[in-house]
Amino acid sequence: MIRYENGDSDALKHIYDLYCDAFPEKERKSMDHLVGLMRNGCYRLVLMYDSTENVVELNEVVGFALLYVSNEKHFSWLDYIVIDPMKQSNGYGSKLLIYLKETFGILLFEVEVPDGIDFNRERRIQYYEKLNAVRLNWDYYLPTPEGGLKMYLYALAEVQTYHEEVIRMFMNEALRYIHSDIVNLDEILNRSIPF
Fold first, then answer.
1. What DSSP letter does each residue of 146-167 carry, written as one string?
2. pTM of model > 0.85
């Protein structure tokens, strides 16, 4: 049976190596920064377990997600999603995404732009689109210390019912919170979410 739990900073410490293995250094946050984000409850760690696999120990998490949640606007920003490499291709990623969408509302997230070299990028896009994620036709740059990294922006849910300005306001709120450590954040956000 699949179960989901909200994680705290201790849980984050247990999954941090898995997080680091899953993302390139330029896309990751430090442990201290993630713990700081989790302090006020807007930024959450959601852990996924599968008891049918006898996965009950904290260090045997099947997968997890880190996301910013704005209950007022019914949006959430999926910052990171990871499924343990030994558990991939078993439907866990789809189940976790569906749970997040049903629990936290519209999921917005970034996906790497295909470069013709890393075929996993194209595979990820096909995977998300199979789950009915819709690419938003906006220029978007992931805030990084080196400057903005061009990414695609996707939404999992019916974003057509929301005015574009509402989505942009949520993105501005979420990205300013998540990437408060980026020195040139205003410049990057002005390219990504112009008003």
1. TEEEEEEEEEES-GGGS-HHHH
2. yes
Catalogue all structural domains in the chain, each as residue range(s) with its CATH number: 2-192 (3.40.630.30)
Three-state DSSP class for 82? Answer: strand
Q: How far is CA 59 from CA 82, 93, 113, 135, 194, in A?
A: 14, 18, 32, 34, 42
For 54, counting Cβ atoms within 10 Å of its Cβ (0-12 exposed, 13-18 middle, 19+ buried), the class is: exposed
- Tokens coding 47: 């852990």
Range 163-173 burial, b when 16+ CB lie within 10 A, else e: eeeebbbbbeb
Separation of alpha carbons 182 and 144, rounded Å: 6
Query: Of the candidates 106, 105, 124, 128, which has an alpha carbon nearest to the alpha carbon of residue 114?
Result: 124
Dihedral (CA of 94, 95, 96, 102) sign = positive
Helix axes 164-178, 185-192, angle to 10 degrees: 160
In one-letter notation, the amino acid at residue 160 is Q
pLDDT tens across 161-195, in order? 677 788 888 888 899 899 988 888 888 888 877 54
